Fold these 3 entries.
Entry 1:
Amino acid sequence: MDYRPLGNSGLMVSSLTLGTVPFGGANGFEKAASVDRKDAEKLLDIAFEAGVNLVDTADLYSVGVAEEITGKALGSKRHDIILATKGRSPLGDDPNASGASRYHLVRAVEASLKRLGTDHIDLYQLHNWDGVTPIEETLEAMHQLVASGKVRYWGTSNYTGWQMMKTLGKAEAQGMIKPVSQQIYYTPESREAEYELMPLALDQNVGSLIWGPMGEGFLTGKVRRGQPTPPDTRQGNGWPEPYIHDMERAYDIIEALVAIGEAHDCSPARVCLAWLKDRPGVTSLIMGARTEDHLRDNLAAADLVLSDEEHRSLEQLTRPAPLYPYWHRVVSGMDRLDPAEQPFLDGYRETIANRDDDRSA
């Protein structure tokens, strides 16, 4: 297992993280969760034995139940690992039971501490942007929570590039504690994070924790072209995520993962994780497994080494379209490219060159 700095901090986290969305199964999460305390203890032990040192949860997951199970399942192991949770999501009809206001965040942290059975949260993440609360108020609340010792570090989740830069810039200007990480959705099928969020991570030294790296089960190989979707998958039981941009392209990606998996005698899920964990800017991939077998298979991705050709073929197949202003930088031959976006612009350059070759053929 590799250990990487979490952004601009001295905290070292494993390249694979255990996620707890599958813990619980209540309050609207029945289709995504079913792991009880006993099974959670087994999954945690397996992950820790493999070197995982970060566990991620949220007050939203089963509306508090996942945190309760996580806290009880960790028991005495709590202080041997890094514990992360999230808040900000609507948890009731009260208009103040949501958002990133000082009122809500302080109450949310205190409630999470109680459910988790701990005196501090190692990484507290704002689960989404709050477009109503002034960012200055949010920053003051997080600064206060860190200064109080209830939170050690804080981060964001599901922010856009401009929202994250506004947060970082305002924190620096106000002398407030900055977020050290962002938790974002990023998969071989969905690489929009490479337009802004991954260059931001590299430029600002922000850690990137990747949720749903297998497309919430979509890229595990259970969903295949021309085959019925299994009802025991999120894609077959009506769970609303993830959003798939182009199903035919997605099927092509799944087939490529399957083919590489067959060459390595392993699952396409393991190939997916092995490819994604070494993409530029990635700190850790969050795995959410319901069974021991699935978890062990995911953990084995830490040791799977893909060839350079396999890395290249998957990158080419899954490469996102060059949007403006990225394609403009390439076609106009701009020099002085920023090192933070260079890894991603190189792919656009190849895409545009191939397009021009096709036109002239």
Note: The chain has a mean pLDDT of 94.
Entry 2:
Amino acid sequence: MINFNLDTLRGLSTPCYLYDLSLLRDTLAVIRKEIEGYPFMVHYAVKANANSVILEEIRKAGLGVDLVSGNEINAVLDAGFDAGKMAFAGVGKADWEIETALVNDIFCFNVESEEELMVINEIAAAKGKVASVALRVNPDIDAHTHKYITTGTEDNKFGINLSRLDEVVDQAVAMTNIHFMGLHFHIGSQITTMKPFEMLCDKINELVAHFESKGINFEIIDAGGGLGVDYENPEQNSIARFHDFFELFKTKLKLRPGLTVHFELGRSIVAQCGALISRVLFVKKTPHKRFVILDAGMTDLLRPALYDAHHKIVNVSAQSQELEKYDVVGPICESSDVFGKDLLLPETSRGDLVAIHSAGAYGESMSSRYNMRSLPQCHFIE
């Protein structure tokens, strides 16, 4: 858990992000231990948090990166990551982004459609390159998470449907400027039970056996990410269930010689090491509500406004232990600028410091300048 030092917090300009690098390092150490001795490779999903200090810690831990834009490619190259550990995903890759990846000889493109496959082949031919690709499969597995972060059903925009997979694999194998490596999957985010991953393993085993029967052997299987974190009790569960996650793939996947399994973990690596720190501007009382109005808003942490995401909120400087019920809101001119409703907090006053937990993933990376707001500053503790 993050160790909040009140003297340190009082000296910070708010709103700001506070990152605990010790917790991040402990998390990375657990991942390295869990994959040791297995043909597993973890790529960090940069979209979760692209802060340069965070990237440096992840690079030093030896992880690869999962990328979804050309600017992310440039950012991780600047951060010193090995291009041979870069996987480029995303349902809409622009030509210049494909060219950037090809010029830098990245490890693999995760291809989402037949047309994308043809375009990559054409651009690679024009540049005298051979593009290594994995085809993203839509396995029609419902991870039972929020509809905005479900990605593996037939109703989603991602991946190639199973009914088309054989034909698209045959196309990839036949293309002159494509090196077909295997299959890629990602069934959703914030998955908190192992059952969807077990279903994914069954589907992977089925598809690997099917293509082996056709004489096609894969070099890689990319199982994606999606492992959730505990937003309810971040102090008690500050490191995600990596043991259960990797143990499932160790036991359920039928690993072939020469086949490596790749993972794209983002939220589970960085969510718990970051908190959004804010000051109380006002406590507003109405006949039916008490509002704690913070100097942080949806421009600093969008997730609650975007899909009602829950984050634990703590008054870290409260002088009273008497609990009151509050709606915790921000200053933005939008009714959706709400962090939590009917929350029990110690009696709260103007100037109190509030920590919004589990904000290390999709917090800073989704912040904006809406209402001409300043972007939040970042601070780091060891």
Note: The two ends are 12 Å apart (CA to CA).
Entry 3:
Amino acid sequence: MRIDILSVVPRLLDSWFGESILQRAQQKGLAEVVVHDLRAYSTDKHKRVDDYAFGGGAGMVMQIEPIDRCISALKAERAYDEVIYMSPDGERLDQPLANRLSTVNNLIILCGHYKGVDERVREHLVTREVSIGDYVLSGGELAAAVLSDSLIRLLPGVLNDETSALSDSFQDGLVAPPVYTRPAEYKGWKVPDVLLSGHEARIEAWRHEQALVRTRERRPDLPGAASETFGEG
């Protein structure tokens, strides 16, 4: 998978993609993330990429020309499955959407700034708009990083244990169950006996039960909250 991110402050993304799992994914050749400085595509002598809004009002607006020039240059090199704009009013990012997008080959992600982008960008250049939540950030870089992370970790070979992503929260409409590690007892706080039993079927039943209980308590809006319950057996 290749992800091209368009930003007016590309250095904000350096540490995100230069460490840990995302760095290893790129080193293994499983993912490629290229961040582009939109100012490099400006024809303004001061490399401006924003201007005042027609009709007045507070805040500046990202211009269409640098964005179009950058997207056109990228599309001349390869085909893209989606051109995504990170937008507060876009489609909400959830696990099913991440699963679908993780199967494509090439993505462009546009990071908004200021009061947003010229509406013609959204009308003519973008194929999908994605939001990571009902709040506003200073720019779309963090949102683009979140989206990229959610996709790259799903690629085969990225995680050391490929079954790990399958047991993540939301994959089955439930949040994840509690997890524990050594020591088995600390300050009198004990790990549930079933997890130490070595009985795989009972452990899986317990985990499902705990995920269901936690989902009903914390996220009753999720589809898995209405699923059937069952005991340890």
Note: Helices lie at 14-17, 20-27, 64-75, 95-101, 119-124, 141-152, 200-218.
